[in-house]
User: Which sequence fits this backbone?
């Protein structure tokens, strides 16, 4: 129910406030106070008619004037001003204003319906005579009844389009001007209609009103007749009483009477700039279904996001964009033709999505489907925006976006970003969406893309995934397990999580593992180890199933030329291998399989062979003499290859295994007989052959003592040349430590040094004797230097000479060097003396072979003599002669020949290392 208010010229008895003859309120509903009347209603109660209007009033030619506006307190006011040629005095013209006032709650109900016309002229009283204002007992009515306002049904606005179908642009401008006025973007809109009557103006107003969102309707105030444009400044839509010139500064003017129709006060660029809103509102004129949908949408949106309800054109524009792009009633490519438009829309969507119901939101994000459809990447700015809104949007929206992402991830574009988006948002999905994500990522993984990242993701979510997802993940992992880039990580994933797998998943793994195990390659060995580690915990039924499949595979493999599965199992010590080999060694698969299994582990090192025999023996029916002979024959045949390289550590490892087996066997049992004979025939020869390899372990001197102690306890090994090498090396070490040069020469000469051991022995002696300081005297050090070099086939005296001089030269102080007397350096004299002493020792105490090496390498000693005498200082020959005399008591023949050499030696002029090898060669030439 609405309040009513009446205002006119009345006698003082009817004057409610002024108490005088004149214009005043004479009737109103309770609650309409003087303050409200004076501040809000005077706008229409004091129209101030022009002289022309007064003349027309007297002639009764002014039709009722209707008006609507919103009061500052939110009330809605509708007014009707009715003119009278004569007032109650019978002398003057007058008018009566009837105001109907709706509260803000009533106004909201009044506006919030798409099927009502806002203005119903029939609700207004035009006859002041009803009030009998001249009666003697007349008085103002302060409790006038409320009125039950009856709205008229809304007329479809299509009639207006039909009327001006030849002037669509003009009509669109009118619609835009009214919307802009309601939003405060235009001061006033003046309209000169073809017919100058209230009914026509109301019809136009009701029609224009019908396309505005509910919250903007109160902002579009109107009046049906204006003769003075300076009046009614706050009224937005003014229908003119006649042709009037309206300055552009005053507002927009639309003249429907002129030919052609005229539109002034608005720039064309403003219309073009807002073409989307203009065209949309025009569409609402022609399509009742879209109009109704938009009005309902806008009403709900404003309630959810009050910012959209602001009386600003930008807010209206945002509403229009949101509706057009999310209602699903418009062609997507029409409303969002470019990436830029789409980015712009999602910027608004991010701000206002709370205003959109779920179906609208889903329609909005369906626009993203253009990217997978065209195989193009989502623009970075847009993708960033989607990443931001995704976690907090509705499940339906997330499903649409995720579907787009998952469709795109199969294309060779932006895969890394899409995967990061998917994995980051996985946990927030519903079960069906999680399954969909896993399904798509499984396909991408199997396709060979993002495998490292996806595998890590699968590891994180697998145990919590649904059975269907687990099954799909495992299927793709097992299909990809031979991909070298992810093989190890897939195996690690299986090993780490196997115990958490469901029985069905574990069975799937066993089935796939069986297929790969038959290949007998590196992957097969890894999977076999996985089965060995987990199969014992399975049900008896599962174990029997796998064992039977594996045994049948080995048996069927025998019909083929190659047997990779058998060869792999033959060298394996796991559960599955033992199960199969028990049947092989028991003769179930025939003698060929038996011999091949034996040859497989025999193909490895002696330690591998021994370990293989240790595993095989428990499965043999009996280790009798025939069986031993059969085994030895197979072993001999398998180890006969010339390419088989012996290994000292492996041989020792084999000896250790055999020793443990002997301990566990009965004293006179067939097993004890086997192991004793096996050790004699295979292990001991392997150790004997590899004993010199001890010198290859340069950094493990303690290893020598271990090997020596081991060999000393085994007669066959102790009798070998290899042990003799170790024995004499040990004696050599003792003589070196005692600085006994003759003893060093003797022990060294007794070592059987083969070409294979020369280089490692020289390195070993240097590291563990020379560098360790084993030689306690210069003579012993000199001998050690020379003998280390002789291992390679010569004494190399220049190297010995330089090494002996080096320490003294590095420690010599410059001041001392300046005080030294002219002549050879002391270090050089000492070095010469030590080398000559060593040569004398070789001549007197060395073996024929050692002396022969000295003769054969005379040029080496020549070079040292030349170096010494080439310093171009006085007294070198004399000093050298004295040094030769010093060794003469030990070997006079050597001294005599050395002196003869010096006499024959030419003087050195330029090259101190000039060769006198011919002379020295003759000096040390062996007598026949």
Assistant:
């Amino acid at each position: 129910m609405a309040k009513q208010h009446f205002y006119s010229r009345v006698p003082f008895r009817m004057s409610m406030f002024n108490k005088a003859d004149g214009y005043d309120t004479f009737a109103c509903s309770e609650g309409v106070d003087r303050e409200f009347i004076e501040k809000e209603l005077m706008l229409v109660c004091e129209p101030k008619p022009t002289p022309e209007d007064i003349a027309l009033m007297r002639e009764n030619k002014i039709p009722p004037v209707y008006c609507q506006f919103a009061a500052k307190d939110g009330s809605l006011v509708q007014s009707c001003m009715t003119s009278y040629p004569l007032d109650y005095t019978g002398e003057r013209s007058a008018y009566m204003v009837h105001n109907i006032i709706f509260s803000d709650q009533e106004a909201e109900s009044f506006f919030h319906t798409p099927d009502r016309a806002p203005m119903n002229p029939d609700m207004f009283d035009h006859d002041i005579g009803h009030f009998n204002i001249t009666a003697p007992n007349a008085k103002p009515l302060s409790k006038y009844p409320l009125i039950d306002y009856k709205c008229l049904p809304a007329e479809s606005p299509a009639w207006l389009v039909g009327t001006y179908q030849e002037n669509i642009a003009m009509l669109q401008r009118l619609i835009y001007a009214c919307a802009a006025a309601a939003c405060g973007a235009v001061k006033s809109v003046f309209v000169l209609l073809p017919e100058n009557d209230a009914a026509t103006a109301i019809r136009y107003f009701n029609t224009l009103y019908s396309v505005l969102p509910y919250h903007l309707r109160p902002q579009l105030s109107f009046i049906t007749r204006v003769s003075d444009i300076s009046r009614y400044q706050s009224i937005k839509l003014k229908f003119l009483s006649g042709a009037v010139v309206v300055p552009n500064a005053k507002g927009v003017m639309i003249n429907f009477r002129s030919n052609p129709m005229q539109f002034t006060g608005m720039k064309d660029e403003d219309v073009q700039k807002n073409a989307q809103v203009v065209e949309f509102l025009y569409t609402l004129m022609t399509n009742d279904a879209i109009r109704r949908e938009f009005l309902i949408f806008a009403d709900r949106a404003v309630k959810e996001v009050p910012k959209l309800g602001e009386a600003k054109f930008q807010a209206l524009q945002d509403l229009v964009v949101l509706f057009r792009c999310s209602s699903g009633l418009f062609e997507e490519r029409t409303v969002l033709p470019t990436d830029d438009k789409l980015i712009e829309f999602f910027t608004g969507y991010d701000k206002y999505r709370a205003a959109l119901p779920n179906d609208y939101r889903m329609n909005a994000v369906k626009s993203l489907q253009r990217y997978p459809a065209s195989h193009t990447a989502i623009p970075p700015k847009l993708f960033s925006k989607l990443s931001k809104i995704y976690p907090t949007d509705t499940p339906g929206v997330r499903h649409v976006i995720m579907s787009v992402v998952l469709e795109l991830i199969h294309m060779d574009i932006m895969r890394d970003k899409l995967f990061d988006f998917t994995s980051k948002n996985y946990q927030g999905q519903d079960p069906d969406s999680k399954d969909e994500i896993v399904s798509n990522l499984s396909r991408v993984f199997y396709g060979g893309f993002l495998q490292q990242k996806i595998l890590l993701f699968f590891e994180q979510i697998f145990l919590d995934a649904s059975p269907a997802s687990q099954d799909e993940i495992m299927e793709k992992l097992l299909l990809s397990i031979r991909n070298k880039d992810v093989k190890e990580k897939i195996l690690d994933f299986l090993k780490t999580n196997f115990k958490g797998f469901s029985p069905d998943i574990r069975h799937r793994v066993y089935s796939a593992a069986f297929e790969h195990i038959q290949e007998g390659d590196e992957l097969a060995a890894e999977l076999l180890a996985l089965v060995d580690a987990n199969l014992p915990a399975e049900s008896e039924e599962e174990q029997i199933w796998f064992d039977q499949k594996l045994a049948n595979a080995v048996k069927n493999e025998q019909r083929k030329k190659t047997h990779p599965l058998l060869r792999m199992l033959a060298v394996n010590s796991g559960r599955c291998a033992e199960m199969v080999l028990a049947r092989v060694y028991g003769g179930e698969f025939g003698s060929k399989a038996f011999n091949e299994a034996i040859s497989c582990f025999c193909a490895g090192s002696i330690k591998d062979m021994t370990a293989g025999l240790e595993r095989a023996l428990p499965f043999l029916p009996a280790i009798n003499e025939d069986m031993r002979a059969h085994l030895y024959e197979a072993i001999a045949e398998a180890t006969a290859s010339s390419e088989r390289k012996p290994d000292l550590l492996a041989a020792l490892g084999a000896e250790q295994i055999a020793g443990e087996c002997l301990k566990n066997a009965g004293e006179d049992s067939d097993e004890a007989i086997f192991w004793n004979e096996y050790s004699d025939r295979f292990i001991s020869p392997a150790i004997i052959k590899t004993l010199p390899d001890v010198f290859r372990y340069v950094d493990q001197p303690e290893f020598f003592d271990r090997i020596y102690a081991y060999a000393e306890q085994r007669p066959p090994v102790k009798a070998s040349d290899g042990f003799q090498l170790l024995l004499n090396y040990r004696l050599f070490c003792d003589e070196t430590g005692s600085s006994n040069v003759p003893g060093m020469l003797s022990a060294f000469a007794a070592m059987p040094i083969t070409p294979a051991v020369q280089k490692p022995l020289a390195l070993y002696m240097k590291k563990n004797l020379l560098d360790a300081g084993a030689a306690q005297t210069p003579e012993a050090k000199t001998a050690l230097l020379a003998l280390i070099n002789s291992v390679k086939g010569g004494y190399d005296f220049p190297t010995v000479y330089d090494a002996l001089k080096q320490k003294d030269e590095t420690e010599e102080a410059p001041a001392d060097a300046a005080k030294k007397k002219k002549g050879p350096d002391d270090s050089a004299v000492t070095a010469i003396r030590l080398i000559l002493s060593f040569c004398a020792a070789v001549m007197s105490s060395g073996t024929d072979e050692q002396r022969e090496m000295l003769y054969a390498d005379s040029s080496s000693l020549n070079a040292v003599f030349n170096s010494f005498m080439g310093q171009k200082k006085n007294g070198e020959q004399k000093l050298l002669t004295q040094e030769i005399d010093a060794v003469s008591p030990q070997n006079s023949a050597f001294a005599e020949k050395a002196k003869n050499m010096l006499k024959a030696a030419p003087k050195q002029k330029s090259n101190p290392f000039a060769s006198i090898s011919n002379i020295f060669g003759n000096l040390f030439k062996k007598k026949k």
